[in-house]
Design a protein that fits this description.
The protein is mainly alpha-helical. The chain is built from 7 helices and 2 strands, in the order H-E-E-H-H-H-H-H-H.
């Protein structure tokens, strides 16, 4: 990889990490203590626009920085890992479509599969936290289920936002990076 491509990659990862932080900061608190935010939409857009490795890295860095800045430092490593797993679900769907994302239904399909991965990861994390706190499995699992509405709202929001903005952003990035002269 030449230095121009390397610099562009670093800048794009940093940009999407910053956008993930901002998207997560735009939050609507829920009575459960969780909140609805746009960070997951940015993660999925990053994977779609700059690729799995760089996109998941950007999302993971963004979520980790957000957590550290907002009193959730203990959860930061988890969200880096989750970004690669959830981003991996998107990457598998992109491969399923042979890297040809040319229809809204494909974006919706990718976003739904990504959302399912997010829901599963959230349930596993919250159940594990309950078990660590000393609850038996049934109580921990039920408690974790009660926290899923926020994740479900985040997933629905992600599907809508990514469906609306992916194609315009893809077109803009294609234009910028095919005409770049730096």
């Amino acid at each position: 990889m030449n230095s121009k491509n390397s610099t562009t990659s670093i800048v794009l990862v940093a940009l999407f990490a910053a956008l993930t932080i901002l998207g997560t900061m735009l939050k609507i608190p829920l009575p459960t203590g969780a909140f609805v935010h746009l960070g997951n939409a940015v993660l999925l857009l990053a994977v779609l626009l700059i690729g799995y490795k760089r996109g998941a890295l950007a999302g993971g860095i963004g979520f980790a920085i957000f957590d550290i800045m907002n009193g959730f430092a203990a959860e930061a490593p988890y969200f880096v890992i989750e970004s690669f797993i959830v981003g991996g679900a998107a990457a598998l769907m992109i491969l399923f479509f042979h890297n040809k994302i040319d229809a809204i239904w494909k974006i919706i399909s990718i976003a739904i599969v990504t959302g399912i991965a997010k829901i599963i990861m959230t349930q596993i994390k919250n159940t594990t936290m309950g078990l660590i706190a000393g609850a038996d499995f049934n109580v921990a699992f039920a408690s974790a289920l009660s926290k899923l509405p926020a994740t479900l709202i985040n997933v629905i929001t992600t599907i809508i936002i990514v469906t609306l903005v992916y194609f315009p952003l893809k077109k803009a990035m294609d234009t910028i990076f095919t005409r770049q002269a730096f």
